[in-house]
Write a structure and sequence with these properties.
alpha/beta; Lambda Exonuclease, Chain A; Nucleotidyltransferase, domain 5; 3 domains; binds iron/sulfur cluster
Length: about 500
């Protein structure tokens, strides 16, 4: 086996799990392909990186396509003493690419790592610490390490202002702290890469942080159906049970204290029955006053805001679906809105909702705090709707409530009460056939057609998928409410 380089991303993978590092390098076919949501996050990161370069005018963008060429060009450019973007640094068997290397004083450099998030995380410090180690091994003198991240209080007004968009924080002291034993860590991970055999690492909390490991399907596959990792209530109890050798919910011994929800889960898994609390469901249903308005929003948030008056990652609604059921005997009427073009959709959404939501009757949403938050955000930007919103908020009812309170539970929901699991459990119908089957997929799909270079054909397809998806969210709520009525009789 030839000597394998250790790159920055491999170092971070290795810090999380040595097995993950080994598989990433030697059996990459085992690592599932990047999904569209993750890819979108990467793309946002690249875009953010482009804006960050504007903080250092006169910088040189070093082409990245050719690995060796990038390293050779970087070396040549050191003498120019200008900011370098994407500088490739190779030192023995370790390699990194630095977002921005900025010359300071006569012969020193600052490392500036750019992140598309809105705060500094421990993993970023490890990331920069590896870069510093690599640069110093290559002979560079590093003065300061900085992390540039997104200022989520920045409000776009015309052209993006990079000085306002980014927060640049000096993280040198934190980098210094974690750098203490970096030499040993790097040596250890290089050893992993020198080994022909994959490390036999057991599953644990490290599979979940700092990133969800993509190999979980493989490594966690030995767990039985309805495993203790499907138990509600957080990881502490799950891992504590796992460490005691208990794998299945039904095998949890009687002396182990469980919450009310966990006891219901155990009962359902053990008996195969569905848990239904008729009285409580009846009480909930009494809150629903006709006409019933089933409402769902889809939103998207961008690292670089695209509409004036909005902030990075602000949730901007681009779509809603509304089913209206006038009375017990009526058939539902469907209304929908999906933003067109690149205009800010918020004024039109407010205009349409004001004419559709009437003055009385329950407005039902699943996890209504989200819809309420979207409405409040809309009215914050367009305060002329403040009085209208007051009336709307008093009519909101959360269809999540009977499920969050476990008045209904079906073991097929596992540990979640999201509509994506509750709808199939309750009605037998679900999202499997849909091209877009989750809120994040919808956000990414819309962002791509709103800000990308999609063809007319792609736009038409995505719009059709979005309309189908959001419609199912509100139609599904009707089915759920109908089923709750049937179950409570
Ligand atoms: S799932 Fe866990 S044990 Fe398996 S490679 Fe990933 S982090 Fe390591």
């Amino acid at each position: 086996m030839p000597s394998q380089l250790l790159t920055k991303s491999q170092y971070l993978a290795g810090l999380q799990c040595r097995k993950y590092l080994w598989i990433q390098v030697y059996e990459p076919e085992q690592v599932p392909q990047t999904d569209t949501v993750t890819q979108y996050v990467f793309d946002q990161g690249h875009l953010v990186g482009e804006y960050a370069k504007r903080l250092y005018p006169g910088g040189i963008d070093i082409p990245q396509d050719d690995f060796t060429e990038n390293i050779v060009t970087t070396k040549k450019l050191f003498a120019e003493r200008r900011p370098l973007f994407e500088a490739g640094i190779l030192a023995g068997r370790i390699y990194c690419r630095v977002d921005i290397l900025n010359p300071v004083n006569e012969n020193e450099w600052d490392i500036i790592e750019i992140k598309s998030g809105t705060s500094i995380k421990d993993v970023h410090i490890d990331d920069v610490s590896f870069q510093k180690y690599c640069c110093e091994k290559a002979g560079l003198k590093i003065k300061t390490c900085k992390l540039g991240f997104i200022n989520n209080q920045y409000v776009k007004n015309g052209e993006i202002d990079p000085q306002e968009l980014f927060v640049l924080e000096d993280i040198s002291a934190r980098v210094e702290e974690v750098s203490e034993s970096i030499e040993e860590r790097v040596a250890d991970l290089l050893e992993v890469l020198s080994n022909k055999v994959c490390p036999d690492t057991a599953i644990g909390r490290h599979c979940l942080a700092p990133y969800e490991c993509p190999l979980q399907v493989e490594c966690w596959g030995f767990l039985p159906e309805n495993s203790i990792f499907d138990l509600r209530g957080g990881k502490t109890k799950q891992f504590s049970l796992y460490e005691q050798g208990i794998l299945s919910i039904k095998d949890i011994p009687g002396h182990i204290p469980l919450s009310r929800q966990q006891k219901i889960q155990k009962e359902c898994v053990s008996t195969g029955k569905v848990h239904v609390e008729k009285d409580e469901i009846r009480q909930f249903l009494k809150k629903l006053k006709y006409p019933l308005y089933y409402l769902d929003f889809e939103t998207f948030g961008q690292a670089i805001p695209i509409y004036d008056g909005t902030r990075p990652y602000q949730d901007i609604p681009f779509q809603f679906s509304l089913h209206v059921v006038e009375s017990e005997e009526s058939q539902p009427l469907h209304h929908s809105f999906l933003a067109q073009g690149t205009e800010d959709p918020r004024p039109q959404i407010l205009h349409e909702l004001k004419s559709l939501l009437g003055f009385e009757g329950s407005i039902i949403a699943y996890c209504s705090g989200f819809e309420e938050g979207v409405l409040k955000g809309l009215v914050e930007a367009f305060p002329q709707y403040t009085a209208w919103l007051k009336g709307i908020l008093t009519r909101m009812v959360d269809l999540l409530s009977p499920f969050a309170n476990f008045h209904y539970y079906n073991a097929s929901q596992k540990d979640t009460v999201s509509l994506k699991k509750v709808l199939p459990a309750v009605s037998g119908r679900g999202y499997e056939e849909m091209t877009i089957g989750a809120g994040m997929d919808a956000s990414v799909a819309f962002a791509r057609i709103a800000c990308g270079n999609a063809t007319e054909e792609e736009i038409a397809k995505v719009r059709a998928d979005l309309l189908n998806y959001c419609r199912l969210d509100t139609e599904g709520m009707i089915w759920v409410a109908d089923e709750l009525r049937r179950l409570s009789n």
